[in-house]
UniProtKB/TrEMBL annotation, chain A:
Role, per record: Accessory subunit of the mitochondrial membrane respiratory chain NADH dehydrogenase (Complex I), that is believed not to be involved in catalysis. Complex I functions in the transfer of electrons from NADH to the respiratory chain. The immediate electron acceptor for the enzyme is believed to be ubiquinone.
Designated name of the protein: NADH dehydrogenase [ubiquinone] 1 beta subcomplex subunit 7
Source species, domain of life: Eukaryota
Bias (Basic and acidic residues): 9-25
Keyword Mitochondrion: yes
Keywords assigned by UniProt, alphabetized: Disulfide bond, Electron transport, Membrane, Mitochondrion, Mitochondrion inner membrane, Respiratory chain, Transport
Region described as Disordered: 1-36
Subcellular compartments: Mitochondrion inner membrane; Mitochondrion intermembrane space
Main location: mitochondrion
From TrEMBL, chain B:
Pfam short name (any one): NDUF_B8
Species assigned in the record: Panagrolaimus superbus
Domain of life: Eukaryota
Name this protein carries in UniProt: NADH dehydrogenase [ubiquinone] 1 beta subcomplex subunit 8, mitochondrial
Gene Ontology cellular-component terms listed: mitochondrion
């Protein structure tokens, strides 16, 4: 909560170096990476996601762990809370890593904005 | 002779038909103490005094002009608080220091045992302006916070910002909504994993 509060206040006080959180990053994603970055791959096909009727929000990069979870749940319901903990943990961990990635994207955007501001201050 | 056959309405008992629970037992219930209209004649005064368990000469009704305390024919009681009463007397109800049938004053709530004041004589002075101030000092900050936080401009006002960028999806669902196939608008996303 303290980090969110400090982020809110700092970004309110200096809007030109605060990344917009309602739109994707504005800088080139590969800028600054000499060896490039690995692409995020979808490990499950659209047809399989259709087969399990995943909602649009569930068709992200963790869907390949959600589908075994759904299969396990439909197998073991109503005791799925106890029997499917491994699948659930795997999917939760993937979603958590995804959220950490979002935080990293924000931080990268913020640092690039600060760098841009510094360069403009020097250049001008 | 005709007096013997005059029946008052109080003699008509529908209790066997409508009573349930504790009302099926004989007893003196709070409804028997319910105030009637303000007494005007001497007869009404006597009847009211007997109803409340007072001597007719002790009965003093409350002036209708006293809007806060007037309640029909409910009588005045002298100011005796809980703490003034003898703790060693064998009361019927020790918890309230009251005997059975004792008159409960109209101001009982000010003088009962769990009030903070010892004498019960400090009146509760609710001045209208003070009441308004006490309410407003809660409502006005609420309104201010609502105004500040309801600004939809992301760069306007105070906004609670999560230090995260939007979630990355393999396809552009917003662009495809509602009729197009999202597979026509793929997005390339990169991760932060180190490249070996």
């Amino acid at each position: 909560m303290g980090q969110k509060l400090s982020t809110s206040i700092e970004d309110r006080l200096s809007p030109e170096t605060s990344p917009r959180t309602d739109r994707p990053a504005t800088f080139d994603p590969l800028a600054g990476f000499e060896n490039g970055r690995p692409k995020r791959e979808m490990k499950v096909s659209w047809e399989e996601m259709d087969q399990y009727n995943l909602t649009i929000g569930q068709r992200d990069y963790c869907a390949h762990l959600l589908i075994p979870l759904i299969k396990c749940q439909s197998n073991y319901v109503p005791a799925a809370g106890h029997m499917c903990v491994d699948e659930r943990h795997a999917w939760d961990k993937c979603e958590y890593e995804d959220y950490i990635g979002r935080i990293k994207e924000y931080e990268r955007e913020k640092r690039l904005l600060l760098r841009k501001k510094r360069k403009e201050a020097i250049g001008a | 002779m005709s007096n013997l056959f005059r029946v008052s309405s109080r003699a008509i008992h529908t209790t066997p038909l409508v009573a349930r629970g504790p009302l099926t037992f004989e007893g003196w219930y709070p409804r028997d103490h319910k105030p009637g209209p303000y007494p005007t004649t001497e007869k009404e005064r006597r009847a009211a005094a007997i109803k409340y368990g007072l001597r007719p000469e002790d009965y003093r009704p409350i002036d209708p002009k006293d809007l806060n305390r007037h309640a029909g024919d409910y009588p005045e009681a002298e100011i005796v608080t809980f703490d003034h009463k003898d703790p060693y007397e064998n009361w019927t109800d020790h918890h309230h220091k009251r005997n059975w049938g004792e008159l409960v004053g109209i101001d009982m709530m000010s003088y009962r045992g769990d009030r903070i004041t010892f004498t019960g004589l400090d009146a509760e002075d609710y001045k209208p302006l003070r009441t308004i101030f006490v309410i407003l000092r809660v409502i006005v900050p609420m309104a201010l916070f609502t105004y500040w936080y309801s600004n939809s401009n992301p760069n306007g006002g105070l906004r609670w910002k999560n230090p995260v960028l939007p979630k990355q999806y393999p396809y552009d669902f917003y662009r495809a909504f509602p009729w197009n196939d999202p597979q026509k608008y793929p997005i390339v996303n990169y991760s932060f994993e180190p490249v070996d």
